[in-house]
Amino acid sequence: MRSIYTVGLVSLASLWLAAGSALAQTTPRETPLRTRPSVGAANNNATAKRTRSLAQPKPAADNGDEDDYQTVTTFGITTNTNAGLLGGFVFRQSQRLDGDLFGKPQYRYLSLELVNVKSPREYSPQNNFGTSSITPGKENYLFVLRPQYGRELALFRRNADEGISVNAIFAAGPSLGIIKPYYVEVSSGNTTRQIPYAQAYSAAENIVGSGSFFKGLGESTLTVGIHAKAAISFELSAFRNNTTGVEIGFLSEIFPKTIVIIPNLDPTAGGREVGNRNFFTSGYVTLFFGSKK
Questions:
Q1: What is the pLDDT of residue 7?
Q2: What is the structure's pLDDT at 84?
Q3: What percent of the chain has pLDDT over 70?
Q4: First vs last Cα of the chain: how many Å apart?
Q5: d(Cα 251, Cα 229) in Å, to the nearest integer?
């Protein structure tokens, strides 16, 4: 009986093992599931990528901070060693050109100035009546209209928001000289009139003051010469599109004949032209202001 139980148990165990082996072979293997990231995780990844890209430094723009304009137009007043405190008025314009000159950015320089040129012997004491000053011996005014063409080189360029730019200027052009008679006011009894100083001096008239500035404009004569100048300008800007500065330079000018401003009245010293000249040199300072674009 015990042997029968033993054989039965062994048989059952064999059947169980066989059934388990067959089931293992027929059951398919489960493949691992790939899970898609949630919408929140995707947004987090995109935000992280943008953060990394923003954190990376961008390449600096070339000349982005330099004061780089194509045209500068200014107006100004000037004084020079051949004039008084107010020597004249100036218009200037600089326009950027392609290419460099001597390795520096270059501009086409145009200028027009009207100045008063005086004789070194001029002085204007107050007359006895105290009404207006006269210039003893003066026979003519000399006004000069100077169109100029040249080049302006940017030696040092300012930052767009601060600093000072330094430019070198070389220009030349014709000189249109306007020789206007100098008028004075003379009295005769209870009446006064205005006549040229040369006439008043020769007639021993009683001079009481200077005449009107516009008197004698129709009697002006013209002469044409040439001039050249070299200068350094210093520019600064209160606002980005505005500019103000100063131009300091030296100018030479020549006319074909001597211009008599104060004639020589001493016959023993020579002719009327003695003490006058046709070649003028002067240092000058121009204060200018204007706009850039």
A1: 44
A2: 79
A3: 72
A4: 120
A5: 4
CATH architecture of 71-126+139-179+216-258+277-292: Beta Barrel (2.40)
Q: Does the structure show a pLDDT above 60 at 246?
A: yes
Three-class SS of residue 40?
A: helix
Contact, 138 vs 262, CB < 8 A?
A: yes
DSSP 133: B
| Residue carrying the six token digits 């200077």 | 210
- pLDDT tens, position by position, 170-182: 999 999 999 999 9
If you write DSSP's letter for every residue of 195-246 in order, what string do you get?
EEHHHHHHTT-EEEEE--TTTTGGG-EEEEEEEEEEEEEEEE-SSTTEEEEE
pLDDT band at 11 (very low <50, low <70, confident <90, very high): very low
Domain spans of the chain? 71-126+139-179+216-258+277-292
Number of H helices, E strands in the chain: 3, 11
C-alpha–C-alpha distance, residues 259 and 269, integer Å: 18
Which tens digit of pLDDT belongs to each residue from 253-278? 999 999 999 998 888 888 888 989 99
Q: Could you tell me where the DSSP H helices lie in the chain? A: 2-26, 39-55, 197-202
Can you give 104-128 as a three-state secondary structure string?
Answer: EEEEEEEEEEEEEECCCCCCCCECC
